[in-house]
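[step 3/7] inverse_fold.run input=structure_tokens len=109
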């Protein structure tokens, strides 16, 4: 198991706990059979197994986080921004997008 797999699992656990879901409930809401839901989520969180892209999409939807949050690897600052952006309502997202767009002049030569 690689460090990246462990980090991916830690991000899943962080989002699950923030959502107030048990491993079993997260699995069930993401479409995993109830009989194996808890075990599958546990193995994802431990980094033993990694879900396929479709399952990641479902987990992200249930947890209300962008899929990219799980793949931020060791960049905790980016992961935190993605996590918070995923939790923001549409008005706040628009404000963030507007603020970022106003920075364009800093990045163009």
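[step 3/7] decode complete -> sequence:
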């Amino acid at each position: 198991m690689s460090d990246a797999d462990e980090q991916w699992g830690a991000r899943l656990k962080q989002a699950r706990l923030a959502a107030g879901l048990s491993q079993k409930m997260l699995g069930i809401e993401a479409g995993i059979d109830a009989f194996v839901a808890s075990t599958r989520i546990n193995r994802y969180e431990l980094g033993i197994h990694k879900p396929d892209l479709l399952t990641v999409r479902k987990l992200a939807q249930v947890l209300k986080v962008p899929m990219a949050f799980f793949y931020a690897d060791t960049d905790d600052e980016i992961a935190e921004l993605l996590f918070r952006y995923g939790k923001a309502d549409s008005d706040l997202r628009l404000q963030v997008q507007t603020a970022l767009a106003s920075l364009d002049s800093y990045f163009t030569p």
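[step 4/7] annotate
The chain has seven helices and no strands.
The helical segments are 3-19, 23-29, 37-46, 53-63, 76-87, 90-101, 104-107.
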